[in-house]
Design goal:
Layout (H helix, E strand, L loop, with lengths): L1 E2 L17 E8 L3 H12 L5 E4 L8 H4 L31 H14 L6 E2 L6 E5 L4 E6 L2 E10 L21 E4 L13 E5 L5 H8 L5 E5 L6 E2 L8 H9 L1 H24 L4 H15 L3 H7 L11 E2 L3 H5 L4 E4 L3 E5 L2 E4 L4 E3 L2 E4 L14 E2 L6 H4 L18 E3 L12 H22 L1 E6 L1 H15 L27 H8 L7 E5 L6 E2 L1
Parallel strand pairs: 2-3, 2-7, 3-4, 5-18, 7-19, 8-17, 9-10, 9-17, 10-13, 11-12
Antiparallel strand pairs: 1-22, 5-6, 6-7, 14-15, 15-16, 20-21
Helix pairs in contact: 1-11, 5-6, 11-13
The chain binds NADP nicotinamide-adenine-dinucleotide phosphate.
The site of NADP nicotinamide-adenine-dinucleotide phosphate has 27 residues, from α4.
């Protein structure tokens, strides 16, 4: 019997009859997620993929965040791919230029360069159910792909606060993730809005140069000593000669960090000891009782991201710094007015107000079966199965999807778990002749019920507002457990949770 199917049977990696290029896999983004997937594919001998990058260089958030003092608050040895340890980290907490250089080096080392399309921002990705493929649009033109993997990352779209009058500010205004290196801050009256992970890193760097710095703090963060130190030449030579030693150090750091999950997820009461440490840190660094009071958090440590800094509090004690805790009422062309009516003249405003995390902009350009927008599917909160697949969106994989973020250790570990899951799925598809995989709605619902049940009682729902929570107060961001538990669940692709469609025979094939 001959099976006639009306679909494009173009071989992968080639142009279709209509001149549209087709690939097996299209990856969005060149941060740790996108590059990690690209490298893993290459290592498995799969070369039929492209990586779509909106910018002109790789690196994701580590390319975009170039503010002074930008560094990672996860120890260097853990913040790298397990298959590409870097013996040359110069500090125990790597500065941004080193992480960015590491990612660029990975591109060269694994031959990913030819797969990357620069200036290829994802404008639209629509699932074509008839052709069983993704139709993708970027400024570089159309493309189709069997599989789409979103590695655009949760920290890629800066969030600009909705403060009345901000648009009309006539001085210089920029977000910390889009640092204006061409703008000389020397002697300027600078306002910084926000006291999160970014602000606490750059405030100490700019404080000595600026004329006056006004720091607008809405909620004081919990801050622990950072204890960053250089890694000696001898130590680095040892890691180069004996990678097993570095792997051992990595393992020790991993274990120590996992213990942190105990307090955050299972026993928030354990955090009381850490709070004591943080309070001592504040007391040791800030003598002025009024300033100390402003900087003391009144919510549970860990509810928001725990920050590490040795130089932030001291910077705030300098005579050219004022910490303002009154809410901002409005921004005027040359000043900021707070609720108490005080008007402060400023030349520059730096907003360090975080990112669109729970309302990922990329979700507004991905359409699944029936044209359903991912953003609409997530109207009541983002959810996915294992943070990786979404019902109604065949052959779509999310990297760092809902409920895979962490408050205690390296995201690279979670990313690698997801990569193993995706690769196992691709292998299963090839082995069994499966053309599409789509998670069953009931599997996704059961999984998300479990997530939300396990999140109850965690420190993240202990009463503070944070970017971990969506507009409905639901934590759609963090993984509620140990990272090794997530790894166990993603080690193998689980076809039973999915609807699988067999590959259709090409037109005219004998059956
Ligand atoms: P963030 O942690 O979300 O902090 C944003 C800050 O802006 C908070 O202090 C927030 O106050 C304040 N804010 C937001 N909207 C405001 C408004 N309308 N008016 C006044 N204040 C407002 O952002 P981030 O510092 O850029 O860091 C984001 C994430 O990036 C971090 O949590 C971390 O995961 C990552 N990061 C990591 C590192 C690292 O070392 N690995 C470094 C930088 C960033 P509230 O607390 O009151 O909301």
């Amino acid at each position: 019997m001959s099976i006639q199917v009306e679909r494009d049977t173009t071989t992968t990696g080639a142009a279709t009859g209509a001149g549209v290029e087709h690939v097996r896999i299209a990856i969005v983004g060149t941060g740790f997620s996108g590059l990690g997937l690209a490298i893993r594919l290459k290592q498995r001998g799969i070369a039929d993929f492209v990586v779509l990058e909106r910018a002109s260089d790789v690196g994701g958030t580590w390319r975009d965040n170039t503010y002074p003092g930008c560094a990672c608050d996860v120890p260097s040895h853990l913040y790298s791919f397990s298959f590409a340890l870097n013996p040359d980290w110069t500090r125990t907490f790597s500065p941004q230029p080193e992480i960015w250089a590491y990612l660029r080096d990975c591109v060269d080392r694994y031959g990913i360069g030819p797969h990357i399309r620069y200036g290829a921002e994802l404008l639209d990705a629509t699932w074509d159910d008839g052709a069983r493929r993704w139709r993708i649009t970027t400024p570089q033109g159309p493309l189709t792909a069997d599989v789409l993997a979103l590695g655009n990352g949760p920290l890629s779209e800066p969030s600009i606060p909705a403060i009345p009058g901000l648009d009309g500010f006539e001085g210089t205004l920029f977000h910390s993730a889009r640092w204006r290196h061409d703008h000389d801050l020397a002697g300027k009256r600078v306002a910084v809005i926000g006291t999160g992970a970014s602000a606490i890193q750059f405030v100490p760097r700019i404080q000595p140069a600026v004329g006056h710095l006004t720091l607008f703090q809405r909620t004081p963060p919990w801050i622990l000593p950072r204890l960053d130190r250089p890694i000696s030449d001898r130590r680095r030579a040892l890691y180069r000669r004996l990678p097993a030693v570095q792997r051992l150090v990595r393992g020790l750091i991993y274990t120590q960090r996992e213990i942190g999950a105990l307090g955050l997820v299972y026993r928030p009461a354990m955090l009381a000891r850490v709070e004591k440490l943080a309070r001592k840190h504040l007391e040791a660094q800030v003598a002025d009782p009024d300033l100390r009071k402003k900087l003391a958090p009144s919510y549970r440590l860990g509810c928001k991201r725990i920050l590490l800094a040795d130089d932030f509090y001291p910077a705030l004690t300098r005579p050219n710094v004022e910490v303002v805790t009154d809410r901002i009422r409005e921004v005027r062309p040359h000043s900021i007015v707070t609720e108490d009516g005080t008007e402060r003249a400023v030349d520059t405003i730096i907003v360090a107000t975080g990112f669109h995390v729970t309302d990922m902009p990329a979700a507004r350009c991905v359409r699944g079966r029936g044209g359903q927008l991912l953003a609409d599917t997530w109207r009541d909160g983002a959810q996915a199965y294992l943070g990786a697949t979404v019902a109604g969106f065949p052959n779509l994989f999310l990297l760092i999807g809902p409920n895979t973020g962490l408050g205690h250790t390296s995201m690279v570990y979670m990313i690698e778990s997801q990569l193993a899951y995706i690769l196992d799925c691709l292998q299963m598809m090839a082995r069994r002749g499966v053309e599409t995989v789509e998670v069953r709605p009931e599997a996704q619902a059961t999984y998300n019920d479990e997530m939300q049940r396990r999140l109850r009682g965690t420190v993240w729902l202990s009463g503070c507002a944070s970017w971990y929570l969506d507009a409905h107060g639901r934590n759609s961001t963090l993984w509620p457990g140990f990272t090794f538990a997530y790894r166990r669940r993603t080690r193998r692709f689980d076809p039973a949770s999915y609807a699988l469609t067999p590959r259709m025979a090409p037109v005219g094939a004998a059956g």
